[in-house]
Amino acid sequence: QVQLVESGGGLVQPGGSLRLSCAASGFTLNNYAIAWFRQAPGKEREGVSCISSRTGPTYSADSVKGRFAISRDNANNTVYLQMNSLKPEDTAVYYCATDRRFLAPCGSQWYRITTYASWGRGTQVTVSS
User: Fold this and answer.
1) Dihedral, 1, 95, 12, 70 alpha carbons, nearest 10
2) Banded pLDDT at 60 (limits 50, 70, 90)
3) What is the 3-state secondary structure (H, E, C) of 21-47?
4) Does residue 67 have a pLDDT over 90?
């Protein structure tokens, strides 16, 4: 059974950093594109970043470029989202997802929620002083 579990969220001051983890069970993360999304209260879920399968390219939303970085740890079957220079507007529940297409890159529609078949339950990130 495919399962994604996010962790690493919490409360952080503006300018601080957090590293989110997306751990997989039931499949090998390295073989699939994985995306991070976030949803703030009262707002739609939005794409944050995507990492292609194997050594393919990564993509990020303009709002997080230069501050967030997505990466893989194949030994631990985990994808990370390193978040630096956090702002109050980064406050949201963060989700990871996969489209479950074997050896596929992040597609041109990587930021759309309809692209993805499997989702984790999310982890809360709150940026506040």
Assistant:
1) 90
2) very high
3) EEEEECCCHHHCCEEEEEECCCCCCEE
4) yes
